[in-house]
Design brief:
Blueprint: H1 8-15, H2 17-21, E1 25-29, E2 33-38, H3 53-72, E3 79-90, E4 98-104, H4 108-116, E5 122-131, E6 136-148
Length: 150
């Protein structure tokens, strides 16, 4: 008898209530990239019939968090990942289902080396939000840190 371990997306869905609230889907989670989808849901539309800015922010931040956990999950016993600041640009009107693609902005080994040296490293995660036709509707940069546990 074999036991199947939950995927990172399944674990994050179970542990982050907002992910469940917005029905976000984890399509891909690796140590360098995460892809999440926000389904088209009228309850989360804005005044022009697309996803609300708050829903898109949550989608992008959740994608960034997934790649951070993918890259630094093995460091959780000694440091907690925290977002420090975020900047979001809205480029085109989003309609329908939107997808966030998050990519780690620095090599994980470089960030861990800073942690090993006793500093509190900061690193960017770049997120692109795209509609079904592939057009980029938004972009977000989130600066994360690994705060050493006391």
């Amino acid at each position: 008898m074999s036991e199947t371990l939950p995927s990172l997306g399944e674990m994050l869905t179970a542990s982050v209530p907002m992910v469940r609230t917005l029905n976000l889907r984890y399509e891909e989670t690796t140590t360098e990239r995460a892809v999440l989808v926000l389904p088209d849901q009228p309850d989360y539309h804005n005044h022009v019939g697309g996803p609300h800015a708050g829903a898109m922010f949550t989608l992008a931040e959740s994608a960034s968090g997934a790649v951070v956990i993918g890259a630094f999950g093995d460091q959780l016993e000694r440091a907690v990942p925290l977002p420090v600041r975020a900047e979001m640009s809205f480029l085109k009107i989003a309609r329908g289902e939107v997808t966030a693609i998050a990519e780690l902005g620095r090599p994980a080994a470089e960030v861990v080396a800073e942690l090993d040296a006793g500093t509190r490293p900061e690193f960017p995660v770049e997120v692109s939000i795209r509609r079904a036709d592939g057009a980029e509707t938004g972009r977000m940069t989130i600066i994360w840190t690994l705060r050493p546990n006391s």
